Amino acid sequence: MQERVEIRLAELKKEFESGQKMLADLEAKQVNLRSTLLRISGAIQVLEEVLAKAGGSGDQEFGAPVYEDREPTAATQEMTV
Predict the structure, then answer these.
(1) What is the phi-psi region of residue 61: left when phi exceeds 0, alpha when psi lies from -120 to 50, beta otherwise?
(2) How many domains does the chain divide into?
């Protein structure tokens, strides 16, 4: 009886360690995904501002460059990184 309990205890400890590793991996993936979503959100905001400044007239083709008389902002520089 005692041997069966010890075997089961060892199995449960292995499962627990495996679960802890899986949880740590998922938490790391969550951090990376949040970072990616934040960058995408920033890019969306910059592009919306560019469209708003262009008047949103729809005269430009999608992807056509918007030329401005000023230097790029930090947000637009970061978007290209």
Answers:
(1) beta
(2) 1
